[in-house]
Amino acid sequence: MSHRGAFIVIEGLDRSGKTTQTETIQKRIQEAGKEVVCIKFPDRSTSIGKMIDSYLRSQSNLDDHVVHLLFSANRWELASTILAHLKQGKVVLCDRYAFSGIAFSVAKNLPPINLAWARAPDASLPSPDLTLFLDISPEAAQSRGGYGEERYEKEGMQRRSQERISDGKGGGKGTWIIVDAGRDMSAVTEEMWVHIRPLLDGLDTPVGRLWD
Ligand code: FDM
């Protein structure tokens, strides 16, 4: 029986090194002779992604519930693509996923978005086989050069969302690993690799669904 590829998600605060690590891990997977597809959420290239982008850059205002649903819809836009790549035996490496979606929406101040409501639109999306959460304190993240200009790039929002990022982890059969991202980049890469390498030969179990 041919194996499907592994679905690997990398989550973490801004400045946790998430994007750099995703690029490094992509190269490593290729060097190991495996095909890998990188996806990033939000995917700002789609029409829904463009609405999200405009909101994040404060060029438009949207109700918090609406933007939450747009982030989820943005994942649904790519769900069949993710499944197709996995079926072809490719590794799918994804920078942020539904865990960010829940964390940032629930972390908003007022009125609070209910956790069960926040989880619902992502139910049945492909579930990652492995989620690596790059854990760094908001203070350490900020000391790496400060946050940018976007709507959520503020210390309070980052800290609150950090506290909520594991709210989604109870779902799915995949593994959830917390990696200390406060260390130097290569130490973080090595620890991530320990968890990723065993998945490179593929899996013979069906892709899970959030939040089964
Ligand atoms: N974000 C990201 C959300 O609020 N919900 C989501 O579902 C996702 C995927 O968007 F502040 C937030 C997290 C971050 C912002 O992300 C843009 P990038 O990684 O900086 O593009």
From TrEMBL:
Query: Mind listing the GO biological process terms from this record?
Result: dTDP biosynthetic process; dTTP biosynthetic process; dUDP biosynthetic process
Q: Which residues form the Thymidylate kinase-like domain?
A: 10-191
The entry lists its GO molecular-function terms as: ATP binding; dTMP kinase activity; nucleoside diphosphate kinase activity
Q: Which residues form a coiled coil?
A: none
Basic and acidic residues: bias regions: 147-167
Q: In which pathway does it act?
A: Pyrimidine metabolism; dTTP biosynthesis
Could you say which EC number(s) this protein's record lists? 2.7.4.9
Key words, A-Z: ATP-binding, Kinase, Nucleotide biosynthesis, Nucleotide-binding, Transferase
Question: Which HAMAP family does the UniProt entry name for this protein?
Answer: Thymidylate_kinase
Alphabetized Pfam families for the sequence = Thymidylate_kin (PF02223)
**What is the organism of origin for this protein?**
Gymnopus androsaceus JB14
- Class of enzymatic activity (EC top level): transferase
Recorded GO cellular component terms are: cytosol; nucleus
Q: What is this protein called?
A: Thymidylate kinase
